[in-house]
Amino acid sequence: MKKIAVLTSGGDAPGMNAAIRAVVRNGLHKGWEVYGVRLGYAGLISGNIIPLGAREVGGIIQRGGTVLGSARCVEFKTEAGRAKALRSLRQFDIEALIVIGGNGSQTGAYELSKMGFPIVGVASTIDNDLYGSEMTIGVDTALNISLEALDRLKITASSHQRAFLLEVMGRECGYLALMTGIAGGAESIIIPEVPLDPEDVVDHIHKAYEKGKAHAIIVVAEGAKYNATKLAAYFDEHHERIGFDLRVTILGHIQRGGNPSAFDRILASRLGAGAVDQLEKGEAGVLMGLLHGEVSPTSLEEVVNNKKKIDLRLFELANILD
Length: 322
Ligand code: ADP
Known about the structure:
This protein is α/β, with parallel strands linked by helices. The protein has two domains: 3-138 and 260-304, Rossmann fold, CATH 3.40.50; 142-256, Rossmann fold, CATH 3.40.50.460. 43% of the residues lie in helices and 18% in strands. The protein contains twelve helices and eleven strands. The strands form two sheets. A seven-stranded mixed beta sheet has the order 3-2-1-4-5-10-11, with helices on both faces. A four-stranded parallel beta sheet has the order 7-8-6-9, sandwiched between helices.
């Protein structure tokens, strides 16, 4: 192996830069040339490819986002788009590609690898919904941001005897909401994996009010059937039974920004370097993730054909502790 390329794709996640840095520095350490593809698969199709030296990735480990840029690219979903991407790679004599990203990006990586190109994925998404990695790059930082928001809301909620609906990201996955709720001691947690009757939430909050609690915090995953907006509309209709005055906070992309936590920087450094080691072994077509504390490969085929589950025992724990 002499020349490899790296790209970041899909939703940006804090720690992607640390992963890029690790790919570049471990590649150089092996005496290889490393290229960066700008703007994800869109840059691969248009040939937006630049050489990356050790200095190009200096001073980025502590920065959120991705210095290579990211994009969502519809053309890459077509075989013709991916054929163009392959032409760009061959034009630069690139022999293997490392794809840092989440579910969609790894599906794209799998599709390209089926066309015969060596690819190794690096598990990175704040949603933590990627099969093949217990924790993905960015989720720890995003969790700490939503936890800080919850802590702050608790203070103002107690002062005014209010209930707050706090909506956090996670797409179809309730991981961020569940962990935010447990770590922040929320009264209620609403996630896509556990269907609920909004009437039960009304009862639950009412009980908290009757118990004399100074506030009620309900953490809602954006992917839940009843997201914060729908729940707020329902609560409005049953206002008199809730007791608390209700406010809604939707965190949105605030969770994506910010400097990566120590955990995410270390995870990104390990997975990025691990992806390069994997290419050296000549074993491509896999995603590098964290399994039982170890940097481990899982075939991209297995990754795209399986849905990661969350540990519902933690949901039960949250119900005991609220
Ligand atoms: P994430 O990686 O954060 O889940 P997306 O779901 O937006 O982000 O996917 C990122 C990009 O991956 C898409 O814009 C597209 O270029 C590529 N991609 C997603 N799904 C596929 C697919 N089925 N086939 C080929 N490429 C895909």
